[in-house]
Design goal:
Radius of gyration: 19 Å
Strand content: 15-25%
Largest sheet: 6 strands, mixed
Order of helices and strands: EEHEEHEEHEEHHEHEHHHH
Strand order of the largest sheet: 1-2-3-5-7-10
Distance between the termini: 42 Å
Shape: globular
Number of strands: 10
Helix content: 40-55%
Length: 262
């Protein structure tokens, strides 16, 4: 039996593939635990400086597998699976100190859509669709959907997408600022891998600090955000990659970043 998360290691970066194609890569408890273990390894691996997340087969992820025993029963408590799996996953993706590229290859529905949108940069195949499918089965968006969508596309569009459950095409998602870029289906993985490999040669600590600054900006006042930028810039200015970047600029040569914090 194939693993439900495929981990492919490249020089400086790791590709994670959701691998339940017969279930449109929907999550069950075992798949969540395997993805968490893979992220544990990535977090502790200084040689991994970027991550690519994608799905096997004809879709990225259909969200929760509704046949999973963890969400069934006569009196289901869906908060348990959210607390145990989805909320920790979204928090980890947002806080990971390495850039995460997501390649959406087909349908991203329910929690699958919101997991994609929690990544740093989203590329989508031209055939991809994003669907907030929750109300179709009597639920509300989770995995950060009610937080992320209004900030990406505005409240009016977010409300409509959540209440109607209508699919958003890749082209529309790009036009609305929901994702970074649409790519022809045949070129999706090639472009996503090239971007991730490029990130693996860049100043990893600067990316981590930039992600922290962006997270802080969600709730900070301008004054608090200016202070946060100051504090994070102090850290960035003491990294080897800043010294290398300045030296490379002065010497008019490509920088050779290591991604190290000290």
């Amino acid at each position: 039996m194939e693993p439900t998360i495929l981990v492919t290691r490249h020089e400086g970066w790791v590709e994670l593939t959701l691998n339940r194609p017969d279930r449109l890569n929907s999550f069950d408890g075992a798949m969540h635990r395997r993805l968490a273990a893979a992220l544990d390894e990535i977090e502790g691996d200084e040689g991994c400086r970027a991550v690519l997340l994608t799905g096997a087969g004809r879709g990225f992820c259909a969200g929760q597998d509704l046949s999973d025993p963890e969400t069934g029963g006569d009196d289901p408590d869906l908060s348990r699976v959210i607390d145990t799996h989805y909320n920790p996953l979204i928090r980890r993706l947002r806080a990971l100190k390495k850039p995460i590229v997501c390649a959406v290859n087909g349908v991203a529905a329910g929690a699958g859509a919101n997991i994609a949108l929690a990544c740093d940069i989203v590329l989508a195949a031209r055939s991809a669709k994003f669907i907030q499918a929750f109300t179709k089965i009597g639920l509300i968006p989770d995995s950060g959907g009610t937080f992320t969508l209004p900030r990406l596309v505005g409240e009016a569009r977010a409300r409509a997408l959540i209440l109607t459950g209508e699919p958003v095409t890749a082209e529309t998602a790009e036009a609305w600022g929901m994702i970074w870029k649409v790519v022809d289906d045949a070129a999706l993985l090639t472009e996503a891998r090239a971007l991730t490999a490029r990130f693996a040669t860049q100043p990893t600590q600067a990316f981590a600090l930039a992600k922290a600054a962006l997270e802080g900006s969600v709730t900070n006042s301008l004054s608090a955000q200016l202070d946060l930028e100051r504090d994070l810039q102090r850290i960035a200015g003491r990294t080897p990659d800043y010294a290398e970047g300045v030296a490379a600029f002065i010497e008019k040569r490509p920088a050779r970043f290591t991604g190290r914090s000290s």
